[in-house]
Amino acid sequence: MEHVSTMTLPEVDTRPESTDTTDDDSPKMFHYVRKNKIAESAVMGTHVVALCGEVFPVTRSPKPGSPVCPECKRIFDSLPPGGDE
C-alpha cells in the first residue's frame, strides 16, 4: 500500500445551503488532503480530495486547535506510519 502524505486543510463548500461554514464564512471543520496538492490548489484554484472524499479548492490554512473532520481523522489514524514524500 502506498503511503499517503497528508496535511490538514479547510473544507470549502460553494453551495449556499452548506452547513460546513459559520456565519463569517469560516470553515467549521478542516480535512486531511495530499500534501503535494496544497500549493497547486492554492495557486491554480484546482480542487483537492480529502481522505473522507470531500472535494474543494484550498482557500485557508487551519490554525492550531481547529476542528478536524472526524472521518478524515479516523482514516488518517488507520494509515501506516511513513515519511513525507
From TrEMBL:
Region (Disordered): 1-28
Organism of origin: Saccharomonospora glauca K62
A UniProt-annotated Pfam family: DUF3039
Protein name: DUF3039 domain-containing protein
InterPro entries for the chain: DUF3039 (IPR021400)
